[in-house]
Write a structure and sequence with these properties.
Blueprint: E1 4-11, E2 16-18, H1 19-25, H2 31-38, E3 42-44, H3 52-66, E4 76-80, H4 91-98, E5 106-110, H5 116-129, E6 136-142, H6 153-158, E7 162-169, E8 174-183, E9 191-192, E10 208-209, E11 215-216, E12 222-223, H7 225-246, E13 254-259, H8 264-274, H9 295-305, E14 311-319, E15 323-331
Parallel strand pairs: 4-5, 4-6, 13-14
Antiparallel strand pairs: 1-7, 1-8, 2-3, 6-7, 8-15, 9-12, 10-11, 14-15
Helix pairs in contact: 3-4, 7-8
């Protein structure tokens, strides 16, 4: 038995934050500087009452319609999110009811960020091959913008909100190959929101600005950009090499690379470091931003529209955790 991707769809909030709007708030920057630095012109942002669960439901409904999928066939829901609707219950349980899925459908959330899509595909493949489920609805949904301090111009230029829905089954258009997964928890505090959960439930109210205008607040998203960049530079080349080896492929056998769309500068640096042909390297972030676990499936949707999903495609995610993962999907 094999596991396949049967269809992918995505949803973005209607509210858009443009570079022009950011420059109005941060006049020391220019539209051109932001675009050149991160490769993003606009990003979609949830309203105050719009949640990751709401977006995941809309992405799933789009998938059912666009790919003509019978919701009655879904027998498992996986939701990747770091911004659940509640501490408990699992948002996936709420989604099961709101989508009208069978009560015999399994469901759980898993908390991962930039590598979440690869981990979700791995779990879904295991469910199919183990005979546990036949049609797994893998959802990714994130509202990182709710965690960012309004004065944090660096992170506000990068992150956007969004959600995706992927159906994994025993048939489909893309066979899911072998995985390489990894974790380095020593870097956990390099990308973190410290308060709000059991370790430190109450707000710290410790907002401060460093000498380089960096924002530090335990109550908001903190990202050490240099540490994440160094981590990515170190782990991605061997990650890809090992994944190709596991799948019995050489670099020449790869038709397309789709990496986590962190920011344009970072992933282009990795591309050049690895000597990947620009024609084989897909980027789609200018009008959506970094949507965390949703970047890769969003890019896959757009690549499919452009007729670029052919042959052996390498997917690789890396970031918060610190966590990383890669897989080859084979499109016939």
């Amino acid at each position: 038995m094999k596991a396949y991707i049967k269809g992918i769809a995505y949803y973005l909030p209607e509210n858009v934050l443009t570079n022009e709007q950011l420059v109005e708030q941060f006049p020391e920057w220019t539209v051109e500087k932001i675009s050149k630095k991160v490769g993003i012109s606009e990003r979609h942002v949830t309203t105050e009452d719009e949640t990751a669960g709401d977006m995941a439901i809309k992405a799933a409904e789009k998938l059912f319609v666009e790919k003509n999928i019978d919701r009655a066939s879904v027998d498992f829901v996986l939701l990747c999110t770091q911004s659940p609707d509640y501490h408990l219950p699992s948002t996936s349980c709420i989604i099961q009811e709101k989508l009208g899925l069978s009560t015999k459908c399994g469901a759980f959330d898993f908390n991962l960020g930039c590598s979440g899509y690869e981990y979700g595909l791995a779990v879904a493949k295991g469910l199919v091959l183990g005979g546990i489920a036949k049609n797994i609805l893998l959802l990714t949904a994130e509202t990182y913008t709710k965690y960012i301090h309004p004065s944090d111009k660096g992170n506000r230029t990068i992150f956007g909100d969004g959600a995706t829905a992927t159906l994994i089954s025993d048939d489909g258009f893309a066979e899911i190959g072998e995985f390489t997964l990894g974790t380095d928890g020593s870097g956990a505090e390099e990308l973190i929101v410290k308060t709000g959960c059991a370790r430190q439930f109450k707000p710290a109210n410790d907002y401060q600005v460093d000498e380089e205008d960096g924002i530090h607040s335990s109550d908001n998203l903190y990202m050490n950009g240099k540490a994440i960049f160094d981590f990515t530079s170190d782990v991605v080349p061997p990650l890809i090499a090992e994944t190709l080896q596991k799948n019995g492929l050489s670099e020449e056998d790869v038709d397309l690379y789709v990496f986590h769309q962190a920011n344009k500068y970072m992933i282009n640096y990795i591309r050049k470091l690895m000597g990947i042909d620009k024609a084989k390297f897909y980027i789609f972030m200018e009008n959506v931003g970094n949507t965390v676990s949703s970047t890769i499936p969003i890019a896959l949707c757009e690549a499919e529209k452009e007729g670029k999903l052919k042959g052996n495609i390498v997917l690789a995610g890396f970031g918060v955790g610190l966590s990383y993962g890669a897989v080859v999907i084979k499109v016939s």
